[in-house]
Every structure is written in C-alpha cells, then in structure tokens.
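Case study B.
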Amino acid sequence: MSSLLQWLDDRFPLVSTWKKHASEYYVPKNLNFFYYFGFLLLFVLCNQLITGLWLTMFYTPSADRAFDSVQYIMRDVNFGWLLRYLHSTGASLIFVASYIHLFKGLLYGSYQKPRELVWLLGTGLLVLLLIEAFFGYLLPWGQMSYWGAQVITSLFSVIPYIGEGLTSWIRGDYQVSNATLQRFFAFHVVGIPLLLLFFILLHLVSLRQVGSNNPEGIEIKKHLNKQGNPLDGLPFHPYYTSKDFVGLLVFLIVFFSIVFFAPEMGGCFLEVENLVAANPLVTPEHITPVWYTAPFYTMLRVIPDKLSGVITMSCAILILFFIPWLDQSPVRSMRYKGKFSIVALSLFSVSFILLGFLGTVRITPARLCVARICTAIYFAYFILMPIYSRFEKHKTVPDRILDK
Amino acid sequence: MRLFLLAVGLTSAILTAAVNPASLPFHGQDKAALQRGANFFMNYCGGCHSLLYMRYNQLARSLDLTLSDGIVDTDLFFNNLVFTHAKSFEPIRVSMPFKDASRWFGAIPPDLTLSAKEKGAAWIMAYLKSFYRDSSRPFGSNNGLVPNVAMPNVLEPLIGHVIAIRGGSKNSTILQMRHVGKGEMTADELDHSLQDLVTFLVYVAEPARENRYFIGVFVILFLFVFLLLAWKIKEFYWQRLP
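Model:
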C-alpha cells in the first residue's frame, strides 16, 4: 500500500495536496452552525449532477415529448420518481443552503480583506446557480415552466434598440418554443454545470489561500505555535470532516423527509400549474416565480416602469459584488460591530424574506406598498453601508478566540 | 445534541405538513375501494376521459387483479374494466376521436391522469356534485362550480334530478341546490362511490406514492441510527482536544 502511494506521489502531488487541503489545513476552532452550509452546498451539487445525469437518460428535450417523458420517468422508469424528486428537492435546497451561506458571509464579515475574491467568486456562483435553475425550470414543459420562461426572456425586450431582436435570438423563435427548449436543455446539462464546477474550484482554492473566517472575525494566522500552526485553529481533517459528517446526516434527514413525504412542499418546490402541459395559447391566471427567485421578481413587479424594474432587479444581485468595498467597518463580525450594522442587517434579512413571500402571492395595494418599502430597505442596506459601518461605535475585538 | 433535536424537530414538522388528511381522502392500501373506484371510472368517466400516463397492466397489478404467479388476470380484468380492444401494455386511451369530441362537446375532454394532483380530491368531489338542470345549455345541465362547463351531467341517473335555486341581483347567484327527483343511489351511496372514484384518481395521479411513503420511513430510521454513529465519531475526535 505504501509503495503504491509512493509510486503515485512521485508522479502526482497526492500527499501534499491532501495535507494542504485537509490534514494540515487549519480552520478556526469556533466554527458554528452557519459553517456547515458550504460543505452541504457541495454535497447537494453532487446530488444534482448524479440525479441529473440519470434523468437525462430518460428525458426527451423536445416540445412534443418533454412533458410526456417526465411522466414516463415518474411511472415507467424504475425509481424514476425518486430520481426526479431528489433532483427537484435538491434544486430548492441548494438555494436554501446558498442563502444561508451568503447570510453567514454578511453576518461575520467574511467578505472583508483578504477574502474579497472568495466573496466575488461566491456571488458569481449564486448568479450561475440562478441561471442554471432558470434553464432547468423550462425542461418539464408544464404551463408554469413555459410561461415563466416566456416572462423572463421577454425581460430582454426592454433594452432599447436591440431588445426585440435580442429576445428572438435568445429564444430562437418569436416565442418560447421547441428551439428554446433544446438550447435551454443544452445549457442546463452541459454549459452552466461546467462553469459552476470551474467556479467552485476557484472559490475553494482561493479560500484555502486565505483560510476560513470565523464567527468572531479574528484572524487565527496572527498567533502561531512553534510548528507554525495557528494556535486557535484545528486541522480540517479529522475535526471538521467528522463534524461536517454529523451536519450532513442532519441535513439528509431533512432532505429525505421532503423527498419521501412532501416532495411538492405544498406547491412551493413543484408547482401545481406545472401538471398541465405547456400551451402557448392559454396563459395561466397567475404567473408566479419559483420561491428562490421570488424576492427579485417582486422588485421587478412593484416598479411601474418595466425597464426600471429590470434594472432594479439586476442591480439587486449585482450590488452584492460590491460589499467588500461598501463595508468600511474595521471589525468583521456582527458580534463586534455597532448597533447600526445589527439593525441594518436585521431589517435587510426581514425585507428579503418578505419580498420572497410577496413574490408568490397576489399583489394588493397594501402589499404593493410593503413590497416597495422592502425594496427600498434592501438597497438602503448596501448604499448606506459605507456611512453607518464607518461612523458607528464598535466593540474591541479580542486578540485570541476565547474558550466558552 | 442540538443538531439532533433540530433534525427531529424539522422532520416532524415536514411529516405533519405532508400527511395532511384534509385535502386527500386517500386509502392507497384499501384495494377494495381502489377496485370500486376503477370500476366507477371505467363505467362513467372512461368513455370520454383518458388516463394517458397509466397503462392497463400497471393498473391491473395495483388493483390486485393478478393470478397467484403475479401475471395479470386477463379474464377478470378485461371482462370488467376494459371496454376497448386495447392490449394490456397500452395506456388507457379513449376511443372517441378528438375531432368528433370537439364537435360534440365544444371541447376535447381533458386527460384525467394528473387531475387529482392538479385540482385536489376535494375539488373533484365538489365539482361532480355541483351539476344541476339548466335547459339553456346544450346538454340540459350546468355546473355551479365551473359555470357553463362543456361536460354533461353524466351522473344524473345516479344522483337524480337537481335544480338550482337562484337569487341575488339578476338571479346571478345560486342560493341552494335542491334534489327534486330520486336517482338510483341514495345520498350516502353516492358519497361512497365518489369517495372511491377520488381514491382511484389520487392513486392514478401518482402510483408510486404508497411505495414512496413505505421506503421513506426506513430511510429516515436508518439515517437517525447513522446520525448517532456519526455523532459518536465526532465526539471521539473532539474530546481529545485539550
């Protein structure tokens, strides 16, 4: 065994890679609940790739066969229903995990120097994930798939001069049709997943370079022992591999409870309207976005002018890229930041959740008003950040991570 | 330990949300109800409505219409439930051509495979019981739930003669549905039959459901045992820390 390892190691940096990324990669010893989700995201992504691969074997990407082939998977393919529910539940849970992962970054200032690039790559991954989900959402070719794609692709038509032409170019037709389905399929199963994997690699490599942040926001590399290892750090393996394994099992219990007992999640994960095959001649009464895009969709629909709405919606995502430079606070973690930051983040989180809820229900004048206030809070959180983060009074950060 | 409690809490929350009896009068294990429902469907619905995603042989197996060696009992099945020349592996189609259907009814009768998931079991029950006599409609019947629906009241011989008593401005709202003539079934018998029909449709909408619940219980139990093991491994390493 050891000679085989030696043979391999002479030809490939096996041991050094293992040491660099696992057994001698030092991670702060105080990582909490929020730090499970990076690993869980990777796990769900693997689930999506594997179940997706198998679904591709039975799915037919053509307008007249797509809907039927999904039912074929649900009924005639052995355990096809399980593959599909794993994939659809995974799609929703990958967004649950993404949003928690992102919230952790905001909470503990993980985007601050020197982790700006980790944050940028992560936000890039979120954008890719949204695109991937959008392409995949058309594939079941149900009513909501079809009209959702119709609405989102029509957003490009608001661009002055080239809008109409661009929309037809994207769809490959004057409306969402077989051509659109086939190109979305190609992007969903090949194009975007490759990009996702490449960005994940970059995200992880850049994280290994700078090391994990922690709930205290204290840099553990400042205090090293005689061997040059951080005093407040623990090797990733076996400490965090064993801990993440526990987290994974808890996650799996939740994941499989949904897959086996509530895969539709009351119409949240799989919509009722999608049980009817796509029909270009019949528009559904309400076109509702799937829950994970709902906050952004709400911003689009509460702004009266379509072009401004599209710009607002795009800015809502793009502004995330600027956080490392918007936050002027000398401390990272919310535990040591001032009152303004805490209030701002709380308001931001509440309005994000409210925007999500408002995107899935019918709009009334009162809800419209709430949605506009929430949109304003969403942007105020970012735009006012340079001011409140710089001038608020913060607590002093201890030098070392203290034991509880 | 906190994580363990979290897992238990979340799982039970999902389970209570999932098995919500209000919307689904589902008796998947009740083969007799399923057989009666299939019978009812084939006699009253299957002439116009297909179950395109369901195959005859799959239906026969799930209705327990099989011989001791698991092969479909063709005599029993084809004599009682199949009124066309379909082969056993074929999907459940209708023999009425679409062209004729749209000429006769003004619409093609929809496929009902996924109807129980799309509309819900309670809706189907309510819909079938909302028909009343209306001489202004081509088939002499109308529906309170879906006004001016193209479907005729096929259950009238069973339900009996029902009229709607209207009121409000311009008589636009239905105040009451009243039985004025007896049908072949009493109100109780009808409810039972419709219950069976809906049970059948809920089954057809997702034949894997029973199996899903069954496997799910074991998967979750296994994961809880595995979680305990993972917890011990984690403790083993973390307790060695100074």
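Strands of chain B lie at 51-55, 91-92, 131-133, 141-143, 160-167, 173-182. The remaining cases will be described in the next quarterly update.
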